[in-house]
Amino acid sequence: MNFNDYDKYAEYEEQFDPMRYDRQARRKRKPKPVHMPKKSSMEVIEEVAETVGLEGGFQTTYQPGIFEEGWLLESLRTFYTQALIQDVLALVKGGKEANVYRCEGNPAVTDELIAAKVYRPRMFRNLRNDKLYREGRPILKSNGKAVKKTDHRLMRALGKKSSLGVQAAHTSWLMYEYTTLQKLHRAGAAVPKPLAVGDNTILMGYCGDRHEAAHTLNEIDLQPDEAQALFQEVMRNIELMLRLEVIHGDLSAYNILYWQGEITLIDFPQVTDPTVNPSAAVILERDITRVCQYFAEQGVTCDAQAIFHELWSRWGTNIELPSEE
């Protein structure tokens, strides 16, 4: 039998349909669905191949641990189906808040190597108290827009720390990092290029190569000339961020990557807005102090207090400066 025979059977069915001559029955009969054109053989094959691949699982070169596998693959599956990444190659960094993985990107869509920052499930996370950083800043939704204060249901959930409220806080934490990266990267800051965001993951530019990821500055001993140049670059970024009304909030040699003579600032979930946070000056002063402590050990002459006051007087708001004791 070939496919054309089905057309003949369709004609016979219509001819001998008992409802053909029953007007009342015809009126009650449901309308036929709109005919859709047949898919080509290639389209069918592609759909089957995609389905088989997904049902077969997202197989990765990196072999996650038993407690890691489920949430890792689920967190990255969306990016895999969107052809943004093709493989997970290695764990780059493990932390209390998130793990960072080196992924193989799809060269036709993204970079060859991509960093995937996967936040831990709530049951495994141990986020530090972020109340200091949240002062004045609204809760962000998954689209990056602020939750309206008139959304009383969500506000109550946040106050009670119900499952809805905890999830909303988690989403906001993640979206602050992603939207900050977007803002800073567009302005020319030395930050990873943000590529995509999911419910639990941020894809961004990768620092390193296939064999080694960039080290953080605290692991690097610099030559005097290089140390001076990199110190100036970090200060450029701090001032650029302040101009854009952004304070990192946790900046130190542990959150600055070093690769082939260049630095990249990372980890922005607790970013602070100096225009609304009354603790902004304290937070900025601490960031600058920590950076200066590292570079002073590398032979750079720097005065954290002088740098802070100079930057704050130039770009700060009318928030009161911390008192000197």
Provide tags for this entry.
single chain; 325 residues; alpha+beta; Phosphorylase Kinase, domain 1; Transferase(Phosphotransferase), domain 1; 2 domains; five-stranded antiparallel β-sheet; 10 helices; 8 strands; disordered N terminus
Task: Please sum up the structure shown.
This protein is α+β, with helices and mostly antiparallel strands and 325 residues long. 41% of the residues lie in helices and 14% in strands.
Topology:
Layout: H1 5-15, H2 23-28, H3 41-55, H4 69-81, E1 85-94, E2 98-105, E3 113-119, H5 131-134, H6 152-160, H7 163-187, E4 194-197, E5 201-205, E6 215-216, H8 224-243, E7 256-259, E8 262-265, H9 280-297, H10 304-315
Antiparallel strand pairs: 1-2, 2-3, 3-5, 4-5, 6-7, 7-8
What does this entry look like structurally?
The protein has 325 residues and is α+β, with helices and mostly antiparallel strands. The protein folds into two domains: 164 residues, Phosphorylase Kinase, domain 1 (2-Layer Sandwich); 101 residues, Transferase(Phosphotransferase) domain 1 (Transferase(Phosphotransferase), domain 1, Orthogonal Bundle). Helix content is 41%, strand content 14%. It has a five-stranded antiparallel β-sheet with strand order 1-2-3-5-4, with helices on both faces. Strands 6-7-8 form a three-stranded antiparallel β-sheet, covered by helices on one side. Strand 4 and strand 5 form a beta hairpin. The longest helix has 25 residues. The N terminus is likely disordered.
